[in-house]
Amino acid sequence: MAVIKELLRSEADGSISFGNYELSEKSKLDDFAHQGDIYKVKTFGEITKLEKNGMFLYESVPGTTVSSLKMTDSGISFTVEGKEDAQITIGLEDDCEYDVTIDGEDHGQMKSNMSGKIMLSVELDEGKAVSVSVSKK
After folding, report:
1. pTM (2 d.p.)
2. Which terminus of the chain is more solvent-facing, meaning fewer CB atoms within 10 Å of its CB: N or C?
3. What is the DSSP secondary structure assignment for residue 7, as one 8-state letter?
4. Which is it for the CA torsion 137, 102, 2, 65, positive or negative?
5. Residue 1, pLDDT above cutoff 70
């Protein structure tokens, strides 16, 4: 997987890819239209953040590259790559239980907080993509 040079792009399968952890300075892209929604991304080596229709969707510290992000009523899935381990926050439904799988390994259940966020720690090695799946119970 490679960084996303255009910061945010639509994929042929209907998913989106975004982020560039190799950037040394903050870069952003506003008003990106995809399947009737408007996205905004901010990314560089220290953080990657994605908003959908003005609402929080994804944040990683440090910055990451995300590929094939797909959202459904029952959850979210994507692959992620970065230079080092990352703390990832995902915006989902408020106060719901989710099953979490990272790189094919079951990481148990998590409950989103009152603002609908869950936090994951993902072990990353540069150049190796890790799959993440969060499914509503």
Report:
1. 0.94
2. C
3. S
4. positive
5. no
Residue range(s) defining the domain that contains residue 97: 8-136
Residue type, 15: S
The closest alpha carbon to 55, from 69, 39, 66, belongs to 39
Q: How many CA atoms lie within 13 A of 52 on its CB side?
A: 15
Both structure tokens of 7: 């910061």
Question: In whole angstroms, what is the distance from residue 80 CA to residue 89 CA?
Answer: 13
Q: What is the CA radius of gyration of the chain?
A: 14
- 96 located within any domain: yes
For the segment 48-53, the average pLDDT, to the nearest whole number, is 98
Q: With CA atoms as reference, report the closest residue to 82 among 15, 10, 26, 22.
A: 22
- Beta partners for residue 22, in sequence order: none
* 17: in domain: yes
Tokens of 40: 């905004």
Domain-located, residue 2: no
What CATH number did the domain enclosing 111 receive?
2.60.220
